[in-house]
Structures are given as C-alpha cells and as structure tokens.
Amino acid sequence: MSRRVTHTHIRTADPLVADASALATPQLLRLLHLASPALPIGAFHFSQGLEFAVECGWVKDEDSALDWIGGLASANLATLDLPVLERLRSAWRQDARQDVLRWNAFLIASRETEELRAEDRHLGSALLRVLIELGLTTEIFPLNAANTPPGVSHASAFAFACARWNVAPCDCSLTYAWAWVENQVLAAVKLVPLGQSAAQRMLHALCARIPLLVERAHKLTDSDIGISAALSAVASGRHETQYSRLFKS
To answer: Measured by CB atoms within 10 angstroms of the end CB, which terminus of the chain is less buried, N or C?
Structure first.
C-alpha cells in the first residue's frame, strides 16, 4: 500500500510578531547573551597584564591567581569600570549624548597603557557591530569608532545594550563584572596553567565577591572614581614588549 505524502507550506513569520517576540525576551536571556564567551568580540584575546605577571612569577598557582584577579576586581573594576558603567547606562536611558561621550572619554583616558586602551576600543567597537546585527543602532559612535579618538569603550557599548533592553542597574553591573571575572580566570587557566577544577573554585570564590563590589561601586561619587592598581599597569606596559606572548598587545 502506498502512502500519500502531504506537503504543507510553512509561511515566513510575520515581522511584527517577530519584533514583539524579541521585546518579550526575558532580561535574563539578554544578559546571558551579553556575557556569553561565544559573543564574537574577542575578549579572549586579552589578559590585561596577567600574562606578564605569570611570566615574572607574580602569579604562579591557583592562590596567587585568585589574589591577582580579586585584587584587580576590588581596586580597578569596582572603583572605575562599574561606577562608570552605571553612569553610562543612565546616560543612554536619558539619551544624554554629552554625558555618554564624557564618561566614555573618561574611561578610556583612565586606561594606563596603550595596550589597555587598544583593548577597550577593540571590545567596544566589536560589541557595537554585534548589536547592529541585533537591531540596536546609535549615531553617537560610528562603525569605525575604534579608529576615531577617543574610540568607544566596552562599557559604553555594554551600557547601550542594557539601556535599550531596559536592564536594571544592578543586573547590568553584575553581568559586566561576571564577564570580566570569567575572562580573567580563563586567561589564568591558559597561562599558569591551571586545571578546570581550579578554575571553577576560583569562579565560585569570585562570584561571592561580585555583589559586594557592585554595591560598593554604585555608592561611589564622581570624585571617588579611579584606580589603585599600579602593579597591573606595570604588567600591562611590560607585556607590550614581552618577547613571547599568547595574548594580544
């Protein structure tokens, strides 16, 4: 007995329905997208001085790696990146162009080495390109923003996405901090090197600190914003001319 095969025509989804569905996407999924290592912005190319710290023996095992990353999180991430990120998110929400430009320029100027400035511009412009593919566009920063002084910082592009997706201030900062911590731990795994179990222990320990760092960051006044991580700046500067490197300079 032969079977009759019935062919059904599958219609293309209505664009209006697709847009409504996109708007209804839970914020948690949006944040997971922004923090995903699969996001094609190249964060895995950079170690922020950790490679030189390993080279000269400042970081040599799990404990010293945890101390290094935790120290930077406390003296750099929580006192510069996170408070500026929140000011940028607020400025994007209010469409305050001059505030966006001012805090973006401030953040890039606060990077102490050419390597760190280049990294920030690279991540920011790469994230903007991804956001354009997702339907988020802005006239404040051109597509070639990385080549236009002062460039666009990673935090500026990240805050732009969070503002347009109505992400809460705390969630925006928590996600940004997690992405930074995860990238640093993955760099340590490659460089020290460390095993995956050590990496998970480090992430577990650092996760417990992140909410406190975010809370602290959101309480800082404008005059309190800054960094106090001189050894990290030295490591980044020395990494620019390090003879053998896994990470970009």
So the answer is: N
Which residue segment(s) compose the domain that 125 sits in?
Answer: 47-235
Single pTM value for the model: 0.87
| Intervals of the chain under pLDDT 50 | 1-22
Residue 24 is given by DSSP the state T
Which residue type, as a one-letter code, is found at position 114? E
Convert the pLDDT of each residue in 212-224 to its tens digit. Answer: 999 999 999 999 9
Show the 3-state SS of 57-120: CCCCCHHHHHHHHHHHHHHHHHHHHHHHHHHHHHHHHCCCHHHHHHHHHHHHHCCCCHHHHHHH
Tokens of 73: 């999180």
